[in-house]
Amino acid sequence: MKTLQLVPLTFLLIFILSCSHSDQRQSKVQLADTLISYKTYAAPEWTNLFYRNEGWFGADGVFAVTLSGDESIGAGKEDSVFMYFSDTMTGTVVGDSTVRNFKMVNNSFAWVREANHEKLDLFLKRNNAGEAVSYFYPNTPDTQDGEYYWFGDAFVNQEDDHSINIFGYRVFDKSEASWDFEIRGVTLITIPGGTREPFNDHKQIDMPLYMNIDSLGTGTFGSAVYVNTKEAGAPHPDGYLYIYGLVDPGKNLVVSRVQPSKVKDPEAWRFWTGKDWEIDINQVQPITDRVSNEVSITPLEDGRYLLVFQLDGIGEYTCVRIAESLTGPFGPIQKIWHVPEITEPPGIIPYNAKAHPVLSDANRLLISYNTITFDYFNDILKYPHSYRPRFFWLEIGE
């Protein structure tokens, strides 16, 4: 993967990022484990693509991979990009204040074409009655009645005929309350290379990647995938997939690794203890904290790695940390973006920020975050555009 290039900035006034609501800001700090200089600004050309009034009108999740498996910066300019979403709002928005035929499904997807021109086609699966339905439902030996999928990150396995592999979390609603749910397990969903919608030939396999560790907490692997192979364009390849996970409480980030050819073999996985790679998932130890359930890891031109996340999972700041290794240690939190929508009615809640290298440019990184409200099932009927992806650019200087 191409690294994010460092480009000169011509501004003279340099200051540490404050809590400003402006769409453009600049910062410079003299610390080796932070971004030295950067600026952030809104990406309305991307945000507006997801402002829809018919059919698909909102979703979260927002992951993207090229069909070739190239994860370099800007790879989407030369390739089709598969973008997929978790919970998806469907119906007809009327006057930005009401929704007809509202229904939430649990996943949808888009093809991003000519990424340099920000064009994409959004897709919903429909049943014979024309109603929106999910593309993927849990269907494994461990699946229990009433479960559905939330998605984690994905990768294209170039050693498996370019199959698309998505980490899915089996979720169960414990009641009708908006936030009363539990995650029960992790599945690897494999879409054979060359397959197109509705993906009927996909496969699902239960993976022992759910954590319930007395000394640490509970969580899942799949928050981010870094493909550290030469074929994916990694600048320092070692032939492994690095799969990151999230453990609560504390929003602790953990990491595992496995070779792409052995990703479906639980015995081949190893978990980072802070000192070594161990086969026992219960030995895993955090490499940083206060991150979000979805994150991203991006290589920088100077050899460091950029972690992008929403502070504490759900909050008003999109942040970064810097490390010299894929296993950390990571530097201090840098708040790079104060979400402007936080002041919008009926009370916007931002979450799960991440970067999208394949949709980025050589000198700037495209970052998304999701927005929701506390009582979203009722709020969506009055504020239908409150639940959708938002985007901004991070431009890094010398």
Task: Walk me through this protein's architecture.
The chain has 398 residues and is an all-beta fold. Helices cover 2% and strands 44% of the residues. About 7% of the residues have low confidence.
Structural class: mainly beta
* Widest sheet, order of strands: 16-17-18-19-20-21
**What share of residues is helical?**
under 10%
Q: What amount of the residues lies in strands?
A: 35-45%
Unreliable spans: 6-31
How does the major sheet shape up? 6 strands, antiparallel
SSE series? EEHEEEEEEEEEEEEEEEEEEEEEEEEEHE
What is the total tally of β strands? 28
Number of helices: 2
Distance between the termini: 20 Å
Globally, the shape reads globular
Radius of gyration: 20 Å
